[in-house]
Amino acid sequence: MGIFGDIFRAIVRVFSSSEAPPPQSGVPGKPARQQQPSVQRPQDQRHRRRKTADDLQVPSKKPFESLTTPFHEQSLPQTRREGDRRLEEQNQINQNNEHYVALRAEATREGDLMAQCYRQSHEAYQQGQGALAKELSEKGGEHKRRMERLNSEAGAWIFRENNLDSKPGEVDLHGLYVKEAIMYAEGAIEEAQRRGDLEIRLIVGKGLHSNGGVAKIKPALEELMKRRSLPADADPNNAGLLIVRLR
What we know:
single chain, 247 residues, alpha+beta, four-stranded mixed β-sheet, 8 helices
């Protein structure tokens, strides 16, 4: 081609040098490996959970705080606590029973009439009215006998109802007057001694429903056990339960 061929080849070389050289593999004679595009992985949301109000809440108990709880409270089974609660509820139901309440109310009325007759009898005697005094005294005696009969019936009813589901060696004295509780406790102790039992458990209550919230049955029975030389202690898990050792 002559001079025109040389010019054409020169132009081709100029344009060819402006292109980017192919990537080098770094190893002579081996083609370069193409670079893989990086894949953007989603962040693991399990480690990016946003804190809630519960996470910021201060724990209600300090570490090892349960170790400061008295041992008898830790060892008391939940079922027993629930059983004591159901027993207390049933006792309250029995003490509010219409039949039982009516018997106690009628006995109270007879007691008031007895006291009135005896007071009038005393006044009549002081005034020299012997016959009237005797008549009023006899009426007072009639009211007294009716009162005692009604209270005896009420005591027998609630003692039977409270002890329908009692455990062996356990006697419930809730709802009884002190005199009645002593009578039933003595009977239960004598029966347990005949069986050869080592102890008897008397449910005496804590006095929460007594007048003034003061227990009456428990101190009376503790005094009874002293007279009978029987060791008696309150249950460490239930102050309303008296454990009497029989031998």
